């Protein structure tokens, strides 16, 4: 059977109707699945986490390439399909839960045909995880944003955050007819590889942004110490007093800083750390 036929078989067997409003499109094109899995550059001993496996079309290819595959599926209706399809597999572990809330087991690679509704939240969460590389399938509009260079119209805070922590590249496009049901747009395969900060200001910003719930005044103080720019809280506060940032910035939570505020902060920190 073709992958499309296999997908219909398991959907009918388990009485599942796909809801496009919930991003339940299943990738059914063999070439697209192969290209996506190849983009992750999986070694035989690697442990791969897949977010949102659905009926397991990508999972099947991952099991052939990796040493171990851990799938995270929030929608319980797919669990019987996965248990049925991969019955007897010793390489597969299934976690039922929300990918934005679970504690991730140790893994080498992260992959996902990423549901659009969690795409931005997932990218923002990635810096808190530890992995060698990630590969995602995302809507083309999201792909444009996450890969956009500074100064381009679609460059946003998402672009800034993603590229601060990762080297992000477009691998290829996947047409709508590669899915059932077909989405209203084409999608991109994108790869992300963790990158080391090139400057002390980049290191400082990367230490700051992982403290999303803290107020900026507390988060930046901690970031200055973590980045090796200050040895004590007193020294950190002294440096902060010379940044000339407006009061409204200090009283915001780190996660609520705008792109403009992040850029202004970079500029201010660059001046005091010269």
What would your notes on this structure say?
This protein folds into two domains: 192 residues, 3-Layer(aba) Sandwich (Rossmann fold); 73 residues, Orthogonal Bundle (Helicase, Ruva Protein, domain 3), CATH 1.10.8. With 274 residues, it is α/β, with parallel strands linked by helices. A seven-stranded mixed sheet has the order 4-3-2-5-6-9-7. Strands 1-8 form a two-stranded antiparallel sheet. The chain contains twelve helices and nine strands.
**What distance separates the N and C termini?**
64 Å
Supply the number of helical segments.
12
Largest sheet: 7 strands, mixed
Q: Write down how many β-strands occur, each being a DSSP E stretch of 2 or more residues.
A: 9
Strand order of the largest sheet: 4-3-2-5-6-9-7
Any chance you could write out the topology, listing elements then pairs?
Layout: H1 3-13, E1 26-27, H2 30-39, E2 47-51, H3 57-65, E3 68-73, H4 79-85, E4 92-96, E5 109-113, H5 119-125, E6 133-139, H6 140-147, H7 157-165, E7 166-174, E8 179-180, E9 187-194, H8 200-209, H9 216-226, H10 233-241, H11 247-250, H12 259-272
Parallel strand pairs: 2-3, 2-5, 3-4, 5-6
Antiparallel strand pairs: 1-8, 6-9, 7-9
Helix pairs in contact: 2-3, 8-9, 8-12, 9-10
Describe, in short, the structure shown.
The protein is of the alpha/beta class and 274 residues long. It contains twelve helices and nine strands.
Key features of this structure:
40% helix; seven-stranded mixed beta sheet; 2 domains; Rossmann fold; 274 residues; elongated; 9 strands; alpha/beta; two-stranded antiparallel sheet; Helicase, Ruva Protein, domain 3
